UniProtKB/TrEMBL annotation:
Transmembrane segments: 44-66, 72-92, 113-141, 147-165, 177-200, 212-233, 254-280, 286-314, 335-359, 365-385, 397-417
Membrane topology: Multi-pass membrane protein
Originating species: Hansschlegelia zhihuaiae
Compartments, as annotated in UniProt: Cell membrane
Superkingdom per UniProt: Bacteria
GO molecular function: transferase activity
InterPro entries named in the record: Acyl_CoA_acyltransferase (IPR016181), BioF2-like_GNAT_dom (IPR038740), Poly_Biosynth_Transport (IPR050833), Polysacc_synth (IPR002797)
Protein name: GNAT family N-acetyltransferase
Length: 873
């Protein structure tokens, strides 16, 4: 027996045994790249099977109906595809943006709400538009060709379920359930149409477009409902049951730009057919559509790769993993182009006999295949860049590209189609695809520093690309190569002039009206950046070195665009910088306050202004890792070509729910725990009647604040002399702060009394529809009755019942032993370091590593101090 049989050089498996071994290894590999490859492969196989079924059905339709009726069917089905793609308003692609984001951040209520809400919204919108369309056909039927009226009625009946299938497709793809995503629409539906056509033909139904559309309606509704049941079963196992939260404004804010992109993409896909049908008879439409269907096999490659990688783009961007993001983009381009090139070659070789299967007259469209192939190959060269731009928050620029491409395509079609017919439509579409691909590639390189040609190694590291590092210092060093020489270019210029200054609290207080005006139009409210807080904080001894980094509109001198409190910061010799201030532990949120209309511009002005002052680094402390402010920071970093690295992050308790108060508390705490807390509350009444008092007027808040200060000083903080009562600067600060906020109705104090004795109190600040549970104090002599917890439960009830409050930030430490068990939502905050100059970008990984080491050493020293202190007692 030949012991070497089945092995290649070096003892590696070869032949069938090697292929089997490689297949087993691929199936066992759980890496993201392997999963993406398997998903792409599955999607491609489904689309290949679909292509076979679709071709069979199109050939049968063409043979059964003849060219004229087939041309009518193509015209009507094109309207279904166009309206079905448009009437979801982008909600079909939104799952690949929101599901990874909510899953990564642990926002399960929003995840559950999105899974239901996205489908309900899409169905409601599409049904409304379909009803309007049915009414329009009824009103204007006499102006339409008689042979189109009934098929158009049937087409509109298809639209809502077509849209539901699209949205469920996006949800399933986001969970890598490619079978649930694609099989119903691309496998079951065409098979069912074939079966129904066979039955109708057997029953001697007339071979018309109306008959074919009737079969299509039945198949569309059946497969959509079956997919709904399959997806529901999968989601029950994947997503734990619980309450839902809905954010339709946020969803639509993201979906609408995606809708613009996809809308223009769909218009690009079908404009040629619609314009051709306006100038030429159904015969030409049928031949042209058959040629497009033949070459659409190549587009399946791009579709399959997009289905596999779109949600990976979001995952890596949210995680800040630029290295894996860049690798995925490069791999996606390769996976798209080379199979597309091979597919074009094969189809051009066998295109004539395939067209002949439709009917002998269809072969006149063979020369169109070469023209169509040019556009398809141009599109495959750059990979799924439109998905990348959409998933990374660049929907608007992507929509602009597709809008321009659509306008170009319409202009070319109207120029070429009347005289050149099918050939003119093919030339117009290919020219448009080439132009669109070039522009998409240029924009992606320019704005994100991403994108790679399939035969290249990808873009070189460049200061003009936003480099988002991982949380690991070694990975950071590898993921953020150092630019040298000619790569050191200036950031992109801003379109609008701004003016930056680093000023004192007292100086900006002279512009208090402008400061408060900015608060009213802030992208996200942050009370710790507002005038009342900062001006009161000037009394604090430990924040006398705090300055305010301010960005003004240069064209409107009294219009503020951004404010953030900062302090000097130096992590390494030669690297001076600033960090957002946390007001000596009195400020729990470091998000900048920026104009909602020009948020990215304000942050760009901040970064550029600090850089021009000679600062090297900026450290955002306690910056929310998701939401509009985080998006604006990332966009500004990307636009100015700077580098960004996360130092550390943590989550703290937050209250944000649409549930009733009792429902929320019952879900948060066990029945046993709630029963025990009620028993403890009754025990408080042993010493006198219990009562709640909530103060909101300036006079009541001032009196309640004094009681709070006394209660705080009576506890452990009084023993350690850390209570505010023992520090004159802190007393001035908190009194002025609450007096100012109470005067605006944006402060309240909740107190629990037993008789006339105060046993617990909580200070709350509000700004707009956001609240902060700022401080709490309680009588430690009654700790057996949990007065602090009792106050938190009552505050929870009142905040959830307050229609003017959307969310309450606990301002607590991470893993707080009390409030984490009551408030289930989490606000994830991160410390993000930004290199302000190209020189600092070279040292950013080392600076991040040094900062983490410094924090770790400080933590160890503090723990050691407390251990020694405990032993000495």
């Amino acid at each position: 027996m030949d012991v070497g049989a089945g092995f290649g050089a070096g003892g590696k498996p070869g032949g069938l045994a090697g292929l089997a071994a490689r297949l087993r290894a691929l199936l066992a590999d759980r890496s993201d790249t392997a999963v993406a490859q398997k998903v792409a492969g599955s999607a491609f196989l489904i689309r290949v099977v679909n292509a076979g079924i679709a071709f069979a059905s199109q050939i049968l339709l063409a043979r059964w109906m003849g060219q004229t009726e087939y041309g009518v069917y193509v015209y009507v089905w094109t309207w279904v595809l166009l309206l079905g793609g448009l009437t979801s308003l982008g909600l079909a692609s939104a799952p690949q943006r929101f599901i990874p984001e909510y899953s990564e951040s642990g926002e399960l209520k929003l995840l559950r709400g999105f899974l239901l809400g996205s489908r309900v919204m899409a169905m409601a919108i599409s049904t409304s538009i379909a009803v309007l369309g049915l009414g329009g056909i009824w009103l204007f039927a006499e102006h339409l060709e008689s042979w189109t009226v009934i098929p158009l009625y049937l087409a509109l009946v298809c639209v809502p379920m077509y849209v539901l299938t699209d949205v469920q497709d996006g949800i399933a793809r986001s969970h890598n359930w490619i079978d649930v995503a694609l099989a119903p629409a691309y496998f079951v539906r065409p098979l069912l149409i074939l079966a129904l056509l066979g039955a109708l033909s057997y029953e001697q139904f007339a071979p018309t477009a109306t008959t074919a559309m009737a079969a299509t309606v039945i198949a569309t509704w059946a497969t959509s409902l079956a997919q709904l049941l399959m997806l529901g079963r999968r989601l029950k196992r994947k997503v734990p049951p619980g309450p839902r939260a809905y954010a339709p404004k946020t969803w639509m804010k993201v979906s609408l730009p995606i809708f613009m992109v996809e809308g223009f993409y769909l218009l690009l896909a079908y404009t040629d057919v619609l314009i051709l049908s306006a100038f030429h008879p159904p015969h030409d439409v049928a031949v042209y559509y058959a040629a497009v269907k033949v070459m659409s096999l190549v587009a399946f490659v791009s579709f399959s790769v997009s289905a596999a990688v779109a949600h990976r783009f979001t995952e890596y961007a949210v995680a800040g993993d630029h290295a894996r993001l860049a690798t995925m983009v490069r791999d996606a381009a390769r996976w798209t182009f080379w199979p597309s090139l091979a597919g074009c070659a094969i189809l051009l070789a066998v295109g004539w006999p395939i067209l002949w299967l439709f009917g002998s007259d269809f072969t006149e469209g063979y020369q169109l295949l070469y023209i169509i192939a040019v556009g398809l190959l141009a599109r495959s060269v750059v990979g799924p860049l439109e998905r990348l731009l959409n998933m990374l928050g660049q929907q608007n620029i992507c929509a602009s590209v597709y809008g321009g491409a659509f306008a170009l395509n319409v202009a070319l079609c109207f120029t070429l189609v009347p005289d050149y017919g099918m050939t003119g439509a093919a030339i117009a579409t290919s020219i448009t695809q080439v132009a669109e691909s070039v522009i998409l590639f240029w924009i992606t390189r320019r704005r994100l520093g991403l994108g790679a040609l399939p035969w290249g190694r990808g873009p070189a590291p460049h200061p003009n690309s936003a480099r988002i590092a991982t949380g690991d210092a070694v990975t950071d060093m590898l993921a953020l190569p150092m630019p040298t020489g000619d790569e050191l270019v200036a950031p992109m210029a801003r379109a609008e002039p701004v003016r930056f200054e680093l000023t004192t609290i007292e100086a900006l207080a002279k512009h208090r009206a402008a400061w408060e005006d900015l608060s009213s139009r802030a992208l996200q409210r942050n009370v710790f950046c507002e005038a009342d807080f900062a001006i009161a904080a000037r009394h604090l001894k430990s924040v006398r070195n705090v300055r305010l980094a301010v960005v003004w509109d240069a064209l409107a001198p009294e219009r503020l665009l951004g404010v953030v409190p900062v302090v000097s910061y130096r992590i390494m010799p030669g690297l001076s910088g600033q960090t957002s201030a946390h007001w000596a532990y009195f400020g729990a949120l470091g998000a900048p306050m920026v104009d909602r209309e020009r948020a990215s511009l304000a942050i760009e002005g901040l970064l550029d202004g600090l850089s021009e002052m000679g600062q090297s680094l900026f450290l955002f402390r306690f910056l929310p890792e998701s939401g509009p402010t985080a998006d604006a920071v990332r966009a500004a970093v990307a636009f100015t070509g700077r580098s960004l690295v996360r130092i550390e992050s943590h989550g703290r308790a937050m209250l944000r729910s649409n549930e009733t108060a009792e429902g929320y508390l019952t879900a948060s705490l066990s029945a046993k725990k709630l029963k025990e807390l009620r028993r403890q509350f009754r025990r408080l009444a042993d010493d006198g009647p219990t009562s709640w008092r909530e103060s909101r007027s300036p006079e009541d808040v001032a009196a309640a604040l004094e009681r709070f200060l006394e209660l705080e000083a009576a506890g452990w903080k009084g023993e350690s002399r850390s209570a505010m009562r023992f520090h004159e600067d802190q007393l001035q600060f908190v009194r002025e702060l609450f007096a100012g906020r109470a005067g605006k109705g944006e402060a309240r104090v909740l107190e629990l009394f037993v008789g006339e004795k105060l046993v617990s109190a909580g200070l709350v600040l509000t700004s707009g529809r956001q609240a902060w549970f700022y401080k709490v104090a309680y009588d430690e002599g009654l700790s057996r009755c949990s007065p602090g917890v009792q106050l938190t439960l009552e505050l929870t009830r009142r905040m959830l019942d307050d229609p003017g409050i959307d969310a309450v930030d606990s301002t607590a430490i991470a893993n707080h032993p009390m409030i984490d068990h009551v408030w289930r939502e989490r606000l994830v905050l991160g410390d993000w370091m930004i290199a302000l100059s190209p020189g600092a970008a070279r040292l950013l990984p080392l600076a991040a590593r040094t900062e983490r080491a410094r924090r770790a050493a400080r933590l160890k020293a503090r723990n050691l101090y407390h251990r020694l202190k405990d032993r000495s007692r």
